C-alpha cells in the first residue's frame, strides 16, 4: 500500500537481449572495414577511366550507407520502454484534482477528409474515460466547410446518447463507425442491453445517413440551416481561403442544460475556422494549431493539450490517464513537455502492402529516441504541457502541485466568448508577435511538428514515448502507391529542409540536447540524401554489367565474403526484427520493396524540390493525403494489388529503373547463350548479376502492372512506353 502511495507513476525498463544486437553490430562493422579495405586496395587495379570512376562512386555510396547505418545503430543501442501505473494515479489523485485537458482535432479539406470521419474522431475523444467537465474539444476546420460544421452539430446531438452508452457498456473503441463495424450484436439473454444497443446503432445510422446525404446533394437542407445561428456565417464566406473567423461553442460544458440523457455533464465542444485572407500566409497546420492554442487558452486553458489528426480516432479510452501518469509523476513529471504515442493504422492489409505499419520503428527506433533524450513530436497522438508548447523554458519552477492547482473558471457567457475569441484567430493577430517563432508551433517547414518538438527539447524539456499494449490512436494509411509516395516525399522534403536550415540538429541542438539525440534526428533529416547513393547503386552496376565492367570481387575470391556477410547478415537481422514485431515474411518483403521505391522516387523528388526552394524557384506547400478511395481502389488494396493508375513522374522513374535492370539481366542471358567465350562471366560478374536479379525481383509488381494486369490499377500505357524508350536509350548509349 505504501509503495502505491509513494511509488512512481510510471516505470522505465530497458529492452532485453541487446547483447546479440551489439555482437551483430560489431561483426557487421568488421565486415564494412574489410569492404573499405577491398575498395581502396583494388582501386589501382581498375582499368580505364570509366571503370575507375564507377569504382570510386560505388565506394562513396558504400561509405554513405555505412554512415547512415551507424546513425541507426546509435538510435537502437539501448532502447527503453515506459509503463504507466494508472491504479496509483487513481489512488493518489481524486477526480476534482485532475487537470483539465484540451483536445485539438485538425481538418483541412472536406473532400479528402470526409465530415463523417471527422465526426467519428471527435466523438471518440469526447468519450474518454475522464471527468467530462474537464474535457474540452476544439475542432479546427481549415477548409471552412459548412458540411464539417453540420457534422459537428450532429456530433453534439448524438453525444448525448453515445457517451452514456460507452460508459455503461465499456465500449472500445469509442468511434461509432469503428465500433459498429467490428462489434458483435448482443444475444437475447440480455434483452435490455440488446434493445439499447440496437437503438444506438439505429440512431448512428440515421445520423450517418443525414451527413452523407447532405454531402452527396452538396447542400445542407434549409430546415437544418435554420436550426442553428452558426450557418449564417457562411453567407459571408467568399471561399475556403478568403473568409472571416467562424467560431461557435456548440456545447458549453458550464451550461447546466448541457447534459446527456442520464443527466451527466457533457464535454465542451468548439468549432473554429480561423480567418483566412489571400494577402496573409496561413502557415498550414501549424497556423491552425497556434490559433487553437490561443482560443482554448481563453475558453478553458487546460494545462494539458492533446492534438490528433482528424483521421486518428481514439482507440483506447484510458489514454489520458496513461499520459497523466507521466506528467503527474512527482519525481520526473515536471521535466516532461510532451508524451508521444505511435502512429498506427486500422486499414492495413495482412502483409502491409505499402509498408505503412512502421512497427519496427515503433518498437525499436522510437524507444531508442526515448533512451537518448526523448522522442520527436510527430504532429498527432501527442499530449503536451501547455506552458512548454507556448514557449516556456524549463527550470525548477515548472514543478506543479496538481492537488493545489487552481482551475480558472471563465465567467463570460458562450456568446461573449465567441465574440472576444474571434480576434485571437484573425489573420493580423500574429503580425509582429512571437507566434510561430518563439511561441506555439514553428512556421516555415512542411514538417512543423519536428522543429517544434526539437525547439521544446532545446529549451531544456524532455519527452517520453508511450506505446501501450492496446493501440491508443488508429488512423487511415494510404491505399494507393502514389498517395504513399507523395506523403513520404512531403516528409522527406521537410526533414531535408530542416537539415539544411538553422534548425539542423547538429547546429541548433549543439550543447542543448545530447549528441546521441542530435544524431537520432539525423536519421529522418537525411532521408532525402539517401536518394543519390541508392540511385547510383541501382543504375551503375546494371550499366556496367552491360559493358562487362566488374565492380565487385569474383565469386571465387575470398574478398567476396565481407560483401556476402554484410548483405546477408543485415537483411537477416532485419527479417528477425520484423518477425519479432509480429509481422509476416511477406510484409518484410513488401517493406524492402517500399524501401527501394521511396529512395528512388519520393526522396529523389524531395531532394530536388528542396534544392529548388533554396535557390528560390519553389515554395513550400502542404499536400493533404486523401483519406478516402473509391470502391475499386479499395477492393484492389484489400487483395494486395498495387495501384499504378496515375501518370506520375514518380512512376516514370520506377518503371524506367525496372526496365533497365531487366535489360541488364537479358544482356547477361544473351552473352551466356552465345557461347563459351563468356563462361567466366558468372564468376567475374556474379555479385552484379545477383544485385540485378534482386532488383528485378523487387520490381516484380511493376512488371506485372506494365505487361500483365488488365484492371484499372495497371500502369498507364504512356508510362510503360516512356520507360521502355528511356531504358533502351540509356542501354544503347552505354553499349
Automatic annotation (TrEMBL):
InterPro entries attached to this UniProt entry: Cellulose_synth, Nucleotide-diphossugar_trans
Pfam families: Cellulose_synt
Secretion signal span: none
Superkingdom field: Eukaryota
Keyword check for Iron-sulfur: no
UniProt key word Membrane: yes
PANTHER family in the cross-refs: X-BOX TRANSCRIPTION FACTOR-RELATED
Subcellular location(s) of the protein: Endomembrane system
Record-annotated membrane-spanning stretches: 20-41, 53-71, 651-673, 685-703
Membrane topology per record: Multi-pass membrane protein
The protein's name in its UniProt record: Cellulose synthase-like protein E1
Record SUPFAM superfamilies: Nucleotide-diphospho-sugar transferases (SSF53448)
Main location: membrane
Swiss-Prot/TrEMBL keywords: Cell wall biogenesis/degradation, Glycosyltransferase, Membrane, Transferase, Transmembrane, Transmembrane helix
Coiled coil regions, renumbered to chain: none
Amino acid at each position: 500500500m505504501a509503495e502505491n502511495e509513494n511509488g512512481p507513476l510510471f516505470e522505465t525498463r530497458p529492452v532485453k537481449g541487446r547483447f546479440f544486437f551489439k555482437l551483430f553490430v560489431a561483426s557487421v562493422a568488421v565486415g564494412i572495414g574489410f569492404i573499405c579495405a577491398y575498395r581502396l586496395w583494388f582501386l589501382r587495379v581498375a582499368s580505364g577511366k570509366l571503370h575507375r570512376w564507377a569504382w570510386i562512386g560505388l565506394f562513396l555510396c558504400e561509405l554513405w550507407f555505412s554512415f547512415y547505418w551507424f546513425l541507426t545503430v546509435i538510435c537502437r543501442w539501448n532502447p527503453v520502454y515506459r509503463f504507466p501505473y494508472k491504479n496509483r494515479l487513481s489512488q493518489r489523485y481524486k477526480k476534482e484534482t485532475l487537470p483539465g485537458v484540451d483536445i485539438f482535432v485538425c481538418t483541412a479539406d472536406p473532400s479528402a477528409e470526409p465530415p463523417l470521419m471527422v465526426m467519428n474522431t471527435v466523438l471518440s475523444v469526447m468519450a474518454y474515460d475522464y471527468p467530462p467537465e474537464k474535457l474540452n474539444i476544439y475542432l479546427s476546420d481549415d477548409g471552412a466547410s459548412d458540411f464539417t460544421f453540420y457534422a459537428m452539430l450532429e456530433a453534439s446531438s448524438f453525444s448525448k446518447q453515445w457517451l452514456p452508452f460507452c460508459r455503461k457498456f465499456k465500449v472500445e473503441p469509442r468511434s461509432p463507425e469503428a465500433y459498429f463495424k467490428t462489434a458483435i450484436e448482443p444475444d437475447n439473454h440480455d434483452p435490455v442491453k440488446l434493445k439499447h444497443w440496437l437503438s444506438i446503432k439505429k440512431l448512428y445510422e440515421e445520423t450517418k445517413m443525414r451527413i452523407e446525404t447532405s454531402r452527396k446533394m452538396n447542400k445542407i437542407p434549409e430546415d437544418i440551416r435554420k436550426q442553428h445561428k452558426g450557418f449564417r456565417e457562411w453567407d459571408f464566406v467568399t471561399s475556403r481561403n478568403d473568409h472571416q473567423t467562424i467560431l461557435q461553442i456548440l456545447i458549453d460544458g458550464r451550461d447546466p442544460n448541457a447534459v446527456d440523457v442520464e443527466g451527466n455533464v457533457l464535454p465542451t465542444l468548439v468549432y473554429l475556422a480561423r480567418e483566412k485572407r489571400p494577402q496573409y500566409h496561413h502557415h498550414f497546420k501549424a497556423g491552425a494549431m497556434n490559433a487553437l492554442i490561443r482560443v482554448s487558452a481563453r475558453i478553458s486553458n487546460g494545462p494539458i493539450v492533446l492534438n490528433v489528426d482528424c483521421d486518428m480516432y481514439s482507440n483506447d479510452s484510458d489514454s489520458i490517464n496513461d499520459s497523466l501518469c507521466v506528467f503527474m509523476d512527482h519525481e520526473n513529471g515536471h521535466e516532461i513537455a510532451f508524451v508521444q504515442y505511435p502512429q498506427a493504422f486500422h486499414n492495413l492489409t495482412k502483409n502491409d502492402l505499402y509498408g505503412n505499419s512502421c512497427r519496427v520503428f515503433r518498437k525499436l527506433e522510437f524507444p531508442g529516441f526515448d533512451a537518448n533524450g526523448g522522442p520527436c513530436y510527430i504532429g498527432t497522438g501527442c499530449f503536451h504541457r501547455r506552458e512548454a508548447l507556448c514557449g516556456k523554458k524549463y527550470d525548477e519552477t515548472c514543478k506543479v502541485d496538481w492537488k493545489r492547482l487552481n482551475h480558472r473558471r471563465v465567467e463570460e457567457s458562450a456568446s461573449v466568448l465567441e465574440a472576444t475569441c474571434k480576434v485571437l484567430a484573425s489573420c493580423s493577430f500574429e503580425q509582429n508577435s512571437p507566434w510561430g517563432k518563439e511561441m506555439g508551433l514553428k512556421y516555415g517547414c512542411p514538417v512543423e511538428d519536428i522543429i517544434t518538438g526539437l525547439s521544446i527539447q532545446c529549451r531544456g524539456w524532455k519527452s517520453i514515448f508511450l506505446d501501450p499494449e492496446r493501440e491508443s490512436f488508429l488512423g487511415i494509411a494510404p491505399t494507393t502507391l502514389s498517395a504513399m509516395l507523395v506523403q513520404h516525399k512531403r516528409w522527406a522534403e521537410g526533414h531535408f529542409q530542416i537539415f539544411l536550415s538553422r534548425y539542423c540538429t547538429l547546429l541548433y541542438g549543439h550543447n542543448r540536447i545530447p549528441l546521441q539525440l542530435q544524431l537520432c534526428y539525423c536519421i529522418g533529416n537525411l532521408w532525402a540524401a539517401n536518394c543519390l547513393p541508392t540511385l547510383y547503386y541501382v543504375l551503375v552496376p546494371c550499366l556496367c554489367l552491360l559493358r562487362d565492367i566488374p565492380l565487385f570481387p569474383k565469386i571465387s575470391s575470398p574478398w567476396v565474403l565481407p560483401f556476402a556477410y554484410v548483405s546477408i547478415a543485415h537483411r537477416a537481422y532485419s527479417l528477425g526484427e520484423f518477425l519479432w514485431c509480429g509481422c509476416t515474411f511477406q510484409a518484410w518483403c513488401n517493406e524492402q520493396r517500399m524501401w527501394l521505391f521511396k529512395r528512388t522516387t519520393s526522396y529523389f523528388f524531395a531532394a530536388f524540390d528542396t534544392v529548388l526552394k533554396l535557390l528560390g524557384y519553389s515554395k513550400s506547400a502542404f499536400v493533404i493525403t486523401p483519406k478516402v478511395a473509391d470502391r475499386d481502389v479499395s477492393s484492389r488494396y484489400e487483395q494486395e494489388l498495387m495501384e499504378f493508375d496515375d501518370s506520375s513522374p514518380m512512376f516514370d522513374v520506377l518503371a524506367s529503373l525496372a526496365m533497365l535492370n531487366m535489360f541488364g539481366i537479358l544482356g547477361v542471358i544473351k552473352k551466356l547463350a552465345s557461347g563459351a567465350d563468356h563462361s567466366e562471366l558468372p564468376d567475374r560478374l556474379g555479385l552484379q548479376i545477383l544485385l540485378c536479379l534482386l532488383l528485378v525481383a523487387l520490381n516484380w509488381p511493376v512488371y506485372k502492372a506494365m505487361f500483365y494486369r488488365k484492371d484499372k490499377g495497371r500502369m498507364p500505357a504512356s508510362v510503360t512506353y516512356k520507360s521502355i524508350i528511356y531504358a533502351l536509350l540509356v542501354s544503347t548509349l552505354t553499349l
